[in-house]
Amino acid sequence: MSKKLADYPKLKEMIYGILFQGRKYSYEAENDKIRIGEMFGFLKEKDGTVCVSNRIFEMKLYNLYLSEEETDTKMFTTAEMEKNQFVVGGRLQMDLVLKKFCEYFEEILRSAH
Q1: Euclidean distance between CA atoms 18 and 65, whole angstroms
Q2: Most buried residue, 10, 27, 52, 72, by CB count within 10 Å?
Q3: How many CB atoms lie within 10 A of CB 14?
Q4: How far is CA 11 from CA 4, 35, 64, 85, in A?
Q5: pTM for the full model?
Q6: Burial class of residue 40 (count of CB atoms within 10 Å of its CB; 0-12, 13-18, 19+)
Q7: Mean pLDDT of 53-67
Q8: What is the rounded average pLDDT of the residues 64-91?
Q9: What is the mean pLDDT of residues 47-57?
Q10: What value, to the nearest 5°, has the Cα angle with vertex 32 and ends 31 and 34?
Q11: At what angle do helices 9-21 and 55-72 cross, to 10 degrees?
């Protein structure tokens, strides 16, 4: 599934739009993205619009996109590694949160110039 989506990025973008943005695409069998999506069994026509072909594919695709976002996002990775430093003994260390925020903000300003 992920290999096919990697091979067809426009199809991947279309499915992402359907799943995460609620996009509605009019069904046209001659549209290459729709035709390829149907060929792989990912898409089907329902009431004149394109939709994910079944609930199993819907959940697998949804989880695939979420997983890719989580692993591709530097901020997510950094936050996962550093989140434990902000909570000690069940209490949020607000001084440390503010200090790290200031450091991050200064880094952003430096890289912008």
Answers
A1: 12
A2: 52
A3: 21
A4: 9, 10, 14, 41
A5: 0.63
A6: middle
A7: 92
A8: 74
A9: 95
A10: 70
A11: 100
Residue whose tokens read 């890719």: 68
String of b and e for 64-94 (b: at least 16 CB within 10 Å)? bbeeeeeeeeeeeeeeeeeeeeeeeeeeeee
3-state helix, strand, coil in the chain (%, to 5): 70, 10, 20
Q: CA-CA distance, 90 to 81, in Å (whole number)? A: 17
Q: What does the block give as tokens for 50?
A: 């394109």
Q: Which two tokens stand for residue 27?
A: 């069904």
Quote the tokens at residue 17. 């739009």
Angstrom distance (rounded) from CA 51 to CA 13? 13
The CA-to-CA distance between both ends of the chain, in Å, stands at 42
